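User: Before I run my own analysis I want an independent prediction to cross-check against. Here's the chain; please return only the structure tokens and, at the end, one sentence I can use as a sanity check.
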Amino acid sequence: MLVAAAARALGLWSVWPWAPVGDEASYLRVARQWVEGGLQDTFWPPLTGWWLASLWPLTHGDANWSRLATALLDLANVALLWSVARPLSPRNAPWAALAYALYLPAIGFACNATSEVPSLTLVLWGLWGLTRTERSWPTVVWMGAAAGALTLARSNLALMGLAWAAVLWLGAEQADQRGRTRAQAAVVLALSLAVPAAWVARNHAHGEGWVLAHNGSYNLYIGNTPDAQEDLNLLAPKATAAQRAVRAGQTNTDASTALSLPPAQRQALALAAIEAQPLTFVRRAWGRLARVWAPKTAQLSLVGGEGRLGVRHPTSLALMGVATAQWAALICLGVGGLAAALTHAHPPTRRAGRALTATVLGALPLCLLAIAKPRYAFPFEPALMLAAALALPWPRGRARLAAGLVLAFIAWGWLAWALFAWSSR
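Assistant: Structure tokens:
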């Protein structure tokens, strides 16, 4: 814990001079609107704004004090990760916590008032309940509420409750446990749907339509237009002229057009584009999946963001090099650990493997529809750390083949991403 605190203190010292930009600035603005005017911004999922608004008596909306509160919450995540890891692998639980404490992308997110750290807190709470051998009903209710709250934090995590419920439903290996376990699965699924449904109903009652947040239609539009900025073509990854122009700040027609359109029209145009070019949509979906696993750049927020120094500056290259090395090791050890756990002879190890795999899979499907970024992997990265902490031998047979195919696809995505990233800047 001291190592985690020191790392985050150093990160806070690094970001202290820099004004908030991007998502961080937007979330702070949403919180200010809520506190000072009682206005609820429905463009963003609401939970992060509520979290920052709840801190207002202490932070008064100051970005740096909000960052400090986020860093303190992330220290709780370190403790939560250790508590999840301890029953799975008592010997390696401290190493899993240490790995997260020193994980550069985690330090970067901990020092920014965005949705990643609160989302991870909810994921870890859900994993804590999912990996228990015995679950009380209050634990089950909390798991369902956490899954529902995840949707209010990041809408692309809306299927996490379904993934967790599926693990519970399929996890009862003894006949006398099935009734209770499947009832628990039903409760988790029902609560994971009820929480966001209540918010959607609230938005409809206020004239916003049957939506969770309007950035969903925005992302769907900019991710499926002909010159989509985020399109990573795995077969021809070099950035197009339009993508280079957007990156250079010369133009961003898709984004400006999307913001000028009513949400319903944005969604209709995006769906029409998908229907007109289904093969392009499928190709882009594979590119989005690769982008989720691509090397990280969000940690550049520690030096004021990519726009301040640029990716070719030695400091930026050092930050990206460290984060990339950590992420590469985590992918290899985590994917191998998941494959080994799922096929292990010991039933508790298989159950742990199913819980961790479901957490990874629950975060991925909705990333395929609109846009995807490497930061979208953050909510499930501790699941890979936990899988690595199991310290199992490399899988054999079909499990080894499956792990190899997954790693080969990720490696292909890394090469494509590197060419795209370098040619677009």
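Sanity check: DSSP finds 21 helices and no strands in the chain.
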